[in-house]
């Protein structure tokens, strides 16, 4: 069954970075992995509005963090420059690393989660925006390796969420591997669709 929850945020409000009607309000006290859906041409203004809403983050006592894979590095830097208080962590080309066994893939997932916690010096109450999630996959000497990729993602997500410390991982995918998109579907709690409608943003939460 699919249930939907709607909310609206004025486009002007996005640009003014006000917390009123913030798209994440519809999530309430729900935590875990969520997929962000939005028009490609609107990614920058929507994310900038969400991340720069200092009043919202202060009211919720939460910290937004941006993780960026290589194809999204330019966009992430532009967003970071407009929201300097939001930590930005750029992930190297993990897919270019040659992994020899599943233990190595698992360690990479654990390491990525640990580096996030150590970089921001925080382990709870975070909304982590992962830009270009489908670009994160693991290879062996023959190329893309499904089993290692499965292990990497399982390790990374479980390390982020294992303590149940009110953490959300919000993934945005464009391009990359379809296999990773399909893999992440198994972890996603709900999809958050943000659309422009009549000069406002309509936020729709679709539970899977």
Whole-number radius of gyration?
17 Å
> For this structure, what is the CATH class?
Alpha Beta
Helical residue percent? 25-40%
Order of helices and strands: EHEHHEHEHEEEHEHEE
Distance between the termini: 7 Å
The secondary structure category is: alpha/beta
**Binned strand content:** 25-35%
* Average residue pLDDT: 86
CATH level 3 topology:
Rossmann fold
**Bulk shape:** globular
Tell me the major beta sheet. 8 strands, mixed
> Would you report the number of β strands?
10
Quickly count the domains: 1
Secondary structure tally, helices: 7
CATH architecture, please? 3-Layer(aba) Sandwich
Write a structural description.
With 208 residues, the protein is α/β, with parallel strands linked by helices. It has one domain: Rossmann fold (3-Layer(aba) Sandwich). The chain is 36% helix and 27% strand. The chain contains 7 helices and 10 strands. The protein has helices spanning 11-16, 43-51, 54-60, 73-82, 102-120, 146-161, 178-185, and strands at residues 4-10, 32-38, 63-68, 88-90, 126-131, 139-140, 143-144, 167-172, 188-197, 200-207. The strands form 2 sheets. An 8-stranded mixed β-sheet has the order 1-10-9-2-8-5-3-4, with helices on both faces. A two-stranded antiparallel sheet has the order 6-7. Helix 2 crosses helix 4 (73-82), helix 5 packs parallel to helix 6 (146-161) and helix 6 (146-161) packs across helix 7 (178-185). It starts with a strand and ends with a strand.
